[in-house]
Write a structure and sequence with these properties.
Blueprint lengths: L2 H13 L4 H8 L3 H13 L6 H4 L15 H7 L2
Helix pairs in contact: 1-2, 1-3, 2-3
């Protein structure tokens, strides 16, 4: 697998909810490489950690996370 292919594949899998370690095992690449790819994708704004993305949300509020952009991503919208 090319470096570009590995980058795209890891980003796609992690965006779909898979961990970097699980993506690495499935793709047969080192976990450290998958972690590095995820860090670079976060730096480029291609991925966001839930903790950082949800810092301003209040799931206990009426409607919960209805307006959360992560909800739209998870549903594929």
């Amino acid at each position: 697998m090319s470096e570009r292919g590995a980058f795209s594949a890891v980003v796609s899998e992690v965006a779909g909810g898979t961990t970097a370690a699980a993506a690495a095992r499935r793709m047969g690449i080192p976990v450290g490489l998958a972690d590095t790819i995820v860090e670079e994708a976060e730096r480029l704004g291609l991925l966001s950690r839930y903790g950082g993305a949800c810092a301003s949300c209040d799931p206990s509020a009426a409607g919960g996370c209805v307006g959360c952009p992560m909800t739209r991503i998870r549903r594929g919208a």
